[in-house]
């Protein structure tokens, strides 16, 4: 049987646990086991009961806007294959190297291994 006080859980978490528990009981799992599994599932999905102080640090609206803009820039750069600043060829995946070689029209790139791609790209720079 689950231990501990359930007072710190939200009503939504309690309803979810009841629903999960009922589902397990319908499958033939004992009441105690169903309750234990239900609360384990709720804990895994939501991290347990309510936390004192909310959900961590509070950011100012300006800091949030800056973080969103920065995140958006990184996402666009990743989508378009723009290398991260300071990224070495050795740190790139073979797919990234192939893409870069394709953009630079390096002949024979499709049969090259990663180390050969690095060598070819280094000589083209």
Question: Explain this structure to me?
Answer:
Among the domains are: 11-46, no CATH class; 83-125, no CATH class. Helix content is 58%, strand content 0%. The protein contains five helices and no strands. The chain has helices at 11-26, 31-46, 61-79, 94-103, 114-124. The radius of gyration is 26 Å and the shape is elongated. It starts with 10 loop residues before the first helix and ends with a helix.
| Rg over CA atoms | 26 Å
In DSSP terms (H or I, runs of 4 or more residues), the helix count works out at 5
Separation of the first and last Cα atoms = 66 Å
Shape: elongated
* Helicity level: 55-70%
- Determine the strand fraction and express it as a percent band: under 5%
Q: What ranges have pLDDT less than 50 throughout 5 or more consecutive residues?
A: none
Q: Sketch the topology as an H/E string, one letter per element.
A: HHHHH
Number of strands: 0
Mean pLDDT: 82
Region (Disordered): 1-89, 103-125
Domain Rho termination factor-like N-terminal: 88-121
Biased composition (Gly residues): 46-56
Biased composition (Basic and acidic residues): 1-36, 112-125
List strands and helices in order, with pairings.
Blueprint: H1 11-26, H2 31-46, H3 61-79, H4 94-103, H5 114-124
Helix pairs in contact: 1-2, 4-5
Brief summary:
With 125 residues, the protein is mostly helical. It has helices at 11-26, 31-46, 61-79, 94-103, 114-124. The protein contains five helices and no strands.
């Amino acid at each position: 049987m689950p231990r501990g006080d359930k007072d710190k859980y939200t009503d939504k978490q309690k309803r979810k646990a009841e629903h999960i528990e009922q589902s397990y009981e319908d499958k033939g799992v004992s009441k105690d086991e169903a309750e234990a599994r239900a609360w384990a599932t709720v804990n895994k999905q939501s991290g347990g009961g309510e936390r004192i102080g909310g959900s961590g640090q509070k950011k100012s609206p300006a800091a949030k806007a800056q973080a969103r803009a920065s995140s958006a820039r990184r996402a666009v750069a990743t989508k378009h294959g723009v290398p991260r600043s300071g990224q070495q060829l050795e740190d790139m995946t073979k797919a990234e190297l192939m893409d870069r070689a394709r953009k630079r029209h390096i002949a024979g790139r499709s049969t090259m291994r990663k180390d050969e791609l690095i060598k070819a790209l280094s000589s083209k720079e």
